[in-house]
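Checklist before submission:
- one chain only
- standard amino acids only
- sequence pasted in full

Submission:
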Amino acid sequence: MELIGWVLVAAPVALGVYAFLVYPGIVWLWSLTRPAYAPPAAPTEWPEITILIVAYNEVRRLRRTLEHALATDYPADKLNVLVVSDCSSDGTDELVTGYGDARVRLFRMPTRSGKPAGENAAGPHLRGDIVVSIDASILIPRDSLKPLVQALLDPQVGLASGRDISVGDESREGNKAESGYVGLEMTLRSMETRVHSIVGASGCFYANRRHLQTVQLPPGLARDFAAASVARAHGYRAVSVDAATCLVPRTPTLKAELRRKSRTMGRGLATLLYLRAMMNPFRYGSYAFMMASHKLVRWLLFPSLLGWLVGPLLLVQRAPYTLVLTVGMIVGLLLARAVLSWPDDRKLPKLIAFPGYIFISIVAGWKAWMQLLRNEENAMWEPTQRPVVDVS
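Returned file contents:
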């Protein structure tokens, strides 16, 4: 029992140190031995592309997203926008059909089926050889689209992912910690690109070759995560393009962040299980190592933290000081409960906002694992209600 106690106490420490310190350190050192990623030269004639947006009840935010997408410096005659409406009922369809630009088209799903089904169904309606997938709530800066497409002019690259920039109203929201996490994730993807290939794209802004985009995936999976593995399985690299930025409004409350994280991690775990063959090092080499380290080990950390609630109780006679871990977890969970009860119209104090974000993430991870173990379907989706942010 004592051995079990020490294993339960040590496992979260080992997994956390490896996921957030050792693995990034290995990738950083590895990247120093490789030349910096350099995209091919800009073409004299840009290829035709389709910007794909799968939307459900996004009338409040979609117009600004369309305006920014059409205002980029990409040649207007080479740019198409396809909005797949997942049976929206709030006027989203009318906004698209009445937008007044022939480049903007609507495809309405016959029944509400979820985002992955909408992405699968979009295939016959795409134009051009490159598909740029964006969220209905993000904004693309004017000079961000070309660098993303330019990366795919390299015949070895099958997927190019943008760089998320988390934005929001810091005077009101309580989720500023999300920005720090997003920044660390984007830095890690840049280093993975230099080594060879990222293992997951930014769901907010990424570009795919059309024949890879039309690969059918089971409903309930996260295509942005799976797309990198689809590219690798077809012999391509997947890269992160730092110059291809997109502005992603933060979820304004940690309550909304819990819903977003539990949903995205739930889909991520289901996708990882589906793609488990990609972690075969004898077939996929460095990609298998990075996928296991970046995704599997990081997500195993969440269930392992349950050990801190039990392990110290088995060590109470030999190592009573370990009880501080149990007390810390209980206090953290009570903090998470308090954060979830915090009024949405009041900003969280800085003293509890950051630890609240950490423990909300832990709870989200637990919910995602329970969803996987219960084999719950996750095909249907309620888009994250990100705010409309005034960003120049």
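Reviewer check: Residues 49-251 form a domain with the Spore Coat Polysaccharide Biosynthesis Protein SpsA; Chain A fold (CATH 3.90.550.10).
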